[in-house]
Write a structure and sequence with these properties.
CATH architecture of the largest domain: 2-Layer Sandwich
CATH topology of the largest domain: Alpha-Beta Plaits
Number of strands: 15
Helix content: 40-55%
Number of helices: 16
Radius of gyration: 25 Å
Structural class: alpha+beta
CATH class of the largest domain: Alpha Beta
Largest sheet: 5 strands, antiparallel
Shape: flat
Strand content: 15-25%
Distance between the termini: 60 Å
Number of domains: 3
Length: 431
């Protein structure tokens, strides 16, 4: 037996859904016959990685030493819809669960393999297959990373207009599976407003294609049925999406309002005038307070534990430049400052853990208490980010109307910024 087989066998004896050695080898061979033995794994380290997403409760539990309860039996990396269909048909025959996996950025535990099964990672299916200039559509595979996809569109003069906070670590298929919304959805709509058609694999292993013409022939809108189904009705392997011309200019402004009600009413008045900013993001008193004074962030020069899967680079070997040590005349002062800093960080770490545990156990009490504190401490009320983008002339005119409307409704301008690129929630130079 090869090395991977030995590691696989030793690991599976400890899983909640353990398989016999013969069944484990048989499963590996069956999957390898579809995708090749280089794109299937039953190694412990790989199964641990695919045992979770970014669900906060699970992450906190792991950080505090909680055991991994649910592991897949295998992970595969297909490169085509045909391979996905073959895997699903095989899993159905074996009565095994399948778990579609995109970027792993979900926060609800949707990819946790409660019954073991086969995790299908789609990230190797990341090609932009075609762009139609006449119809303003793009055909893209489901595993495409969000940021890379948007950057590729920009080089061609287009934008999808979809900027979720997870754009750096999520995929097109994940957006469609959860009906994602983006920062600029006020202008471009959410992902369900951008999708024209899908290719997906059903639980039987059938490949289905949906589009507007198919809807006219068959009746029901299968596209909208699959979008938002979280992988329960099928595995999305590619999509046809609507794109827009890349904006010539983007104008961003920050406003502050005395309270949430005033800010909400300001948004309503602007929208009811028929104005459509690309982004209107209103933060309540709590989020505004956190923006002012973040007691939860800590910066430490102490080593941070990892699970061994992504070790820290050696000094000077990482992406950041190597900063030389302080001159000898400053070393004593620096040492004293570092000692004080470590004491503060240690206290801050304990406070953070206490606050986190309390928040999870009593969220209503914490929200009420923190909201009252925020109202008392923050002198800015509620902050808002407003942005418009598009052709230069239209955007400049519409922005003046929107900003004037916000001021008439009780808003106070806090800052300004113009960008040529914005991704996710990283809006700089505003507040």
């Amino acid at each position: 037996m090869n090395c991977q087989g030995l590691l696989r066998r030793n690991h599976l004896r400890n899983t909640v859904a353990a398989m016999s050695d013969a069944a484990s080898d048989s499963l590996f061979s069956a999957l390898a016959s579809i995708v090749g033995d280089k794109r299937v794994s039953m190694l412990s380290r790989d199964l641990r990685v695919y045992s979770r997403d970014m669900w906060p409760r699970l992450l906190i539990r792991r950080r505090h030493g909680g055991a991994i309860e649910h592991l897949p039996h295998a992970v595969v990396w297909p490169t085509s819809t045909r391979e996905v269909a073959s895997i699903v048909r095989m899993a159905r025959k074996l009565k095994m669960a399948v778990i579609p996996y995109g970027g792993g950025s979900g926060v609800c535990g949707g990819t946790v393999p409660l019954r073991g099964g086969i995790t299908i990672d789609l990230k190797r299916m990341d090609a932009i297959e075609s762009i139609s200039r006449e119809e303003l559509t793009v055909d893209v595979q489901a595993g495409a990373n969000g940021e890379r996809f948007e950057r590729a569109l920009r080089t061609k003069g287009y934008t999808l207009g979809h900027f979720p906070s997870s754009i750096y670590c999520s995929t097109v298929g994940g957006w469609l599976a959860c009906r994602a919304a983006g920062q600029l959805s006020t202008k471009y709509g959410k992902i369900e407003d951008r999708v024209v058609g899908l290719t997906f694999v059903t639980g039987r292993g059938d490949v289905i294609q949906t589009d507007e013409l198919a809807r006219a022939r068959r009746g029901p809108d299968w596209t909208q049925l699959i979008v938002g189904s979280e992988g329960t009705l099928g595995i999305i392997t590619s999509a046809r999406l609507r794109v827009s011309p890349a904006p010539e200019i983007t104008i961003l402004r920050g406003f502050s309002f005395p309270d949430l009600k005033t800010g909400t009413e300001a948004i309503r008045k602007v929208m009811q005038r028929g104005l459509r900013p690309a982004v209107v993001r209103l933060y309540d008193e709590v989020d505004t307070f956190i923006n002012h004074v973040s007691v939860f962030e800590s910066h430490s020069d102490e080593a941070i534990a990892t699970d061994g899967l992504c070790p820290w680079p050696a000094r000077g070997a990482g992406a950041l430049p190597n900063i030389s040590d302080s001159p000898s005349t400053e070393k004593e002062e620096m040492s004293a400052l570092q000692s004080v800093s470590r004491i503060g960080r240690s206290w801050g770490k304990r406070l953070k853990e206490t606050v986190t545990a309390t928040a999870l156990a009593h969220p209503k009490i914490v929200n009420s208490t923190f909201g009252t504190l925020a109202n008392s401490v923050s002198d800015s009320g509620c902050k808002m980010i407003v942005g418009l983008e598009g052709t230069r002339l239209r955007t400049e005119v519409e922005s003046q109307l929107v900003f004037a409307g916000m001021e008439r409704a009780g808003g106070f301008r806090r800052g300004r910024g113009t960008r040529t690129e914005m991704a996710g929630s990283q809006i700089r130079g505003i507040l």
